[in-house]
Amino acid sequence: MSDVTVTSQANLQNEVRYGDHTFITDEPREAGGEDAGPDPYTLLLGALGSCISMTTMLYARRKGWPLERVTVRLRQQRIHAKDCEECERSQDGFVHRIERAVSFAGNLSDEQRVRLQEIAHKCPVHKTLTSEIVIVDLKEEG
C-alpha cells in the first residue's frame, strides 16, 4: 500500500494523493465547505463498505458461489454512550455508531447468504475499526 498525502487547497478542500491517483475531499456547504468531494466520515464509510464488498466477493469467488453483486448501505452517527445498547466498554461520553446493511445478488442458497453475512464482519477495515488504534507521528526520511 502506498503512502497517502493530503494537502490543503482552497477553503476546506484537500487534495488526496496515493500512488498515481488523486481526488478532492471537502465538507458540505452547511459545514462551511463547497461540497467538492466526500467529507472525511463519508470516506471512512466508503472504506468500510468497499472492504466488506471486496472481502465477501473474494470469499464467494474462492468458494465458486454465484455471487453477482454486493450492496452495502452505511450510516454513521455520534450518540451518547448511555444510549448505546450495543456498547460494552464505555457508558460515559459519546460513541460513534455505524449502522450497515449488506445484501447479495445472485443465485445463492440461504446457507451461503448467512455465511457471507458472517464473512462481512471479518473484513480487514471492520477489524481495524473495532480494535485499538494507535496513531503516531511519521518520521520523515532524509
Q: Can you describe what's shown?
A:
By secondary structure, the chain is an alpha+beta fold. It has 2 domains: 1-38; 39-142, K homology (KH) domain (GMP Synthetase, Chain A, domain 3), CATH 3.30.300. The chain contains 3 helices and 5 strands; from the N terminus they run βββαββαα. The strands form 2 sheets. The chain has a 3-stranded antiparallel beta sheet with strand order 1-2-3, with no helix packed on it. It has a two-stranded antiparallel ribbon with strand order 4-5. Helix 1 (40-63) crosses helix 2 (110-120). The chain is globular, with a radius of gyration of 18 Å.
SSE blueprint and pairings:
Layout: E1 4-8, E2 14-18, E3 21-25, H1 40-63, E4 67-80, E5 94-106, H2 110-120, H3 124-129
Antiparallel strand pairs: 1-2, 2-3, 4-5
Helix pairs in contact: 1-2
